[in-house]
Amino acid sequence: MICLSCPRKCASERGRGYCGAPKNPVIARAALHHFEEPLISGKNGSGTVFFSYCNMRCAYCQNFEVSRGQKGREVNISELADIFNALQAQGAHNINLVTPSHYTQAIKEALQQAALKIPVVYNTSGYDLPENLINLSPYVKIWLTDFKYARENSAELLSDCPDYPSFALTALETMLKLAGAPVIENGLLKSGVIIRHLVLPGYRKKSIEVLDLLKPYKEKILLSLMAQYTIMPQCRIAELRRKLTSFEYNSVAEHARNAGFEGFIQDISAAGKEYVPEF
Model confidence over 171-218: pLDDT tens digits? Predict the structure, then answer.
């Protein structure tokens, strides 16, 4: 199988491309998760499915063992559909597809088989092809996307992904066309777009640039500003070998409030390994 599933378009056999992912999905964890945004987790939890491998190389990745494929179990389409159904039976408010970009066709086939009556969340880095998002749109109602960088140099240095800003912006505009404005019922998000942005130590001004880039979309999205940066052993970027300061985070949060964004602003105390799931 020659893979053209993401913006890298490796044109390599699955398992030999940039991300290293095989043809069938590899699952590192499937469980109810209570640490997503309140509109996603609700009371019962979000039915998260963590997919192994990733099409980015974030130096600070908090799910390093998963993104490099060191942990996980390969499943076929029917098994994946069964996982979705089992999470629904456990009371999940939604099915949350975490890092799904390199498995979109398999995910679509599994969603076609599953008997879901709850929303599906596409939980992504933002490095996506618009055609893949459109292909999943009959099933996905909630788009939970990162917007990591506004500039190519930051994206290249921190994630080996210089074209990230342009693809992430195109992906965002596609999601907004597919989802429309957020729809909230009984305290849960039923459809719409949430944009996550993690504030990094030493990159306060870069985060403000991201917010300025996203400002034209503020009426159509919910912003989730995250303070949970955790120093990971594999990170070798000097600026990232320390904790995020309260000044750095609070100044970005203040900029978001002054710009009129609505959504979620995390408490600075959220930084810690308890926010890194067990795989």
Answer: 999 999 999 999 999 999 999 999 999 999 999 999 999 999 999 999
- Sorted by sequence, the CB contacts under 8 Å of residue 185 that are 6+ apart come out as none
Assigned domain for 12 exists: no
pTM over 0.90: yes
**Cα–Cα distance between 56 and 265 in angstroms, integer?**
25
| Of 141, 165, 163, 143, the residue nearest 214 (C-alpha) | 165
Q: What is the CATH number of the domain that holds 137?
A: 3.20.20.70
Give residue 179's identity as a one-letter amino acid code. A
Whether 121 is covered by a domain: the verdict is yes
Domain that holds residue 218: 25-275
Burial zone of 231 (CB within 10 Å; 0-12 exposed, 13-18 middle, 19+ buried) = middle
| 164-192 burial code (b ≥16 CB/10 A, e <16) | bbebbbbbbebbbebbeebeeeeebbbbb
Residues 226 and 196: their CA atoms lie apart, in Å, by: 7
Q: Which of 161, 160, 244 is nearest to 202 (CA)?
A: 244
**Residues 225, 200: Cα–Cα separation, whole Å:** 11
The number of folded domains in the chain is 1
Question: 17 lies in a domain?
Answer: no
Distances, alpha carbon 168 to alpha carbons 7, 22, 87, 244, 250, in Å: 10, 24, 29, 24, 25
Q: Collapse the DSSP code of 77 into the 3-class scheme (helix H, G, I; strand E, B; otherwise coil) and give the result.
A: helix
Using CA atoms, how far apart are residues 113 and 141, in angstroms rounded to an integer?
A: 17
**DSSP-assigned beta bridge partners for residue 189:** 184
Do the domain assignments include residue 192?
yes
Phi, psi dihedral angles at 183 (to 5 degrees): -115, 120
Query: Using CA atoms, how far apart are residues 218 and 279, in angstroms rounded to an integer?
Result: 34
What average pLDDT does the chain have? 94
* Tokens 């499937």 sit on residue: 30
Range 74-80 average pLDDT: 98
